[in-house]
Amino acid sequence: MNLNITLKRSVLLMLTLSLGTLVSCQPDEVGSGNGNGLTATNVDASFTVTPVEGEVNTYILTAQTKGVIVSKWNIGNGEYTGKFTEKISLPDAGTYTISHTAIGTGGAVGTATEEIVVATSDPLKGNLVQGGSFATAEDQAKWTVLNLSATGAAFWSFENNSATIHSPGGWAQEGIYQAIDVVKDKEYTINMLVSSLSGSDETWFEVYAGKSAPVAGVEYKDNKVMGLSTWDGCAKAGFSGMLATVGCVKNDATGTVSNVVKFDTTGKIYLLIRSGGNTFTKDGITVSKIELRGK
């Protein structure tokens, strides 16, 4: 009888020691990682700005990489996911606030900003688009509406320094355009800020730079340069950014996703945006800061 009691006490003592050892081996809580030590408490988002030698108003942004998983940039046209080293061009004179957001382990976020002062505009890269900001009635008047929806179901509205294409779906579409003078064989780039709070299905937003004049009621198809397309995999969910970054439509001339265009004659071309779809976003697609510049 006494032997049984001794054995039970010995087993109890061993269990107690084992539990004590397990508790003592647990790591102390670190930051917000519930004690696993895997979540960073802060992320260094600092970066440097270096002018590119021999190139006008062009800069290299270089972010520090230690502890950073994702690098996001905003040069004034909306935030986008980029690389740790980004090359940017700021052709117009002005003061720019460059923002960098670094995302680290466990979703920790850090943000840093730097200011770039551009003293003189690049004379070769001036914006040829008039009223591309839609800021005033005069800006908005630079654009002509191309009526493509017979019932007027699809339409463009102008407000808040932007233009928005609205469509009830059912393939209703509408366009806007303006004429621009270009030089033979000179390369140009086209870009614009585009956004929508929600996605679409069977929807397009296409940008053309063609020599043929638009005709009301006739779907424009002359020289597609870039755009959004749910068939090609973009605009299915909400988006915001420069079209050259968030777009996925291939350039007719190159067969690739590219915003570069050139022409075989000197003279007038038509910069045209045509958008519509079957299940169109309820929030519309908004555009601003439209540019056509010499490359």
Automatic annotation (TrEMBL):
Residues 72-118 form the PKD domain. InterPro entries: PKD_dom (IPR000601), PKD_dom_sf (IPR035986). Keywords: Signal. Transmembrane segments: none annotated. SUPFAM superfamilies: PKD domain. Residues 1-25 form the signal peptide. This is PKD domain-containing protein.
